[in-house]
Amino acid sequence: MQIYKVGGAVRDRLLGRPVSDVDWLVVGATVEQMQALGYRPVGADFPVFIHPKTGEEYALARTERKSGRGYGGFTFHASPEVTLEQDLIRRDLTINAMAEDEHGSLCDPYHGKTDLDKRILRHVSPAFAEDPLRVLRVARFAARYAPLGFRVAEETLELMRQISDSGELQALTAERSWKEIERALMEDQPQVFIQVLRDCAALKQLMPELDTLLDSDQRTLAVLEQAALHQQPLHVRWACLTHDLGGAIKAINQRFKAPRECQELALLVGECHGYCQQDYTLSASKLLELLQKFDVYRRPQRFEDYIAACEMIARGRQQLQEQGYPQGAYLRAAAQEAKAVDVKSLVERGLTGQALGEALRSERLAALERFTQA
């Protein structure tokens, strides 16, 4: 039995990046031997075990064979006869197909270290094309390592185009696709993820609405880049990505089963981002309508997220004439004026139900009229 550290932990150590999760590979062992040593089996698809003391995952070396469509269409075979090289060749990229033995010596049968030094994302073998999820994974790695100068090898990009043209991307579940999209959006350069998907014709399959928009207007990529530069959370980045897609936003939300927070903000930003660029000229009634739409009285953070998304849109479109974003301060001040209306005094006057709602609206409108005229 031999145990190797494999995959991302090896890659990131060589790049000098922090290593968080460590994957371990066991060569030459059986399920029974692992259990006898106290390892606890998990997972039904292939033999993975939990170390009895560290809690880390250890997988038996295995081979795989394509047996159906999509990410899950594979049959796995694990046995003591499977070699390290046979296990590593089934991995996606050469930089992820390296291992370290117990002495820290590098095992690199597919020249991942060379590609690491050359800053190239290259597939390990033609079997890469059997797994459509790898299109999204490679695009995500391109986004993660773009600051280090990495690029996708042309031959790998060609295989990704073949996958896109094959229709295999349609076999991916919404959950698997979203997991990759979510992780990619939170990388340092998420716009690279979108651009790589576009370069290999995958975006046309996954988000044709966005692909069509980018044919004529590339500013959405700049908006997404600004959202990352300003370290915006996931739901703000998703709203920035989809803000210009109009009526298609709802369909895209549902297609990937985006989390509720992402869906709600994307729809609201898509509908209302234009207001934020003309807020100084908005009438009191329009300002009140905007505040009501965001339910700013009970959900103030959602309004803050809207302002953040609008600022990223303005920055991406190069509409800011100065360092700050005065529109945001203006909208926050308007919200404070509306929220300052004393509900208690209206209740003390005996108003309830519809009458209270109408009086409250009237008072808030009056406050905003004074605000806009100041």
Could you give a short description of this structure?
The protein has 374 residues and is an alpha+beta fold.
Description:
Residues 149-212 form the tRNA nucleotidyltransferase/poly(A) polymerase RNA and SrmB- binding domain. Its EC number is 2.7.7.72. Its cofactor is Mg(2+). Belongs to the tRNA nucleotidyltransferase/poly(A) polymerase family. Bacterial CCA-adding enzyme type 2 subfamily. It catalyses: a tRNA precursor + 2 CTP + ATP = a tRNA with a 3' CCA end + 3 diphosphate; a tRNA with a 3' CCA end + 2 CTP + ATP = a tRNA with a 3' CCACCA end + 3 diphosphate. The protein is α+β, with helices and mostly antiparallel strands and 374 residues long. The chain has helices at 8-15, 31-36, 84-88, 112-118, 133-145, 154-166, 174-185, 190-199, 202-206, 208-216, 219-229, 234-242, 249-255, 260-277, 284-293, 300-316, 326-339, 343-348, 353-373; strands at residues 2-6, 23-27, 40-42, 48-50, 57-60, 62-66, 74-78, 99-100, 106-107, 120-121, 151-152. Strands 3-4-5-2-1-8-9 form a 7-stranded mixed β-sheet. A two-stranded antiparallel ribbon has the order 6-7. Strands 10-11 form a two-stranded parallel sheet. Helix 5 links the parallel strand 10 and strand 11. Helix 11 runs antiparallel to helix 12 and helix 14 crosses helix 16. The N and C termini lie far apart (79 Å). The model has no long low-confidence stretch (mean pLDDT 91).
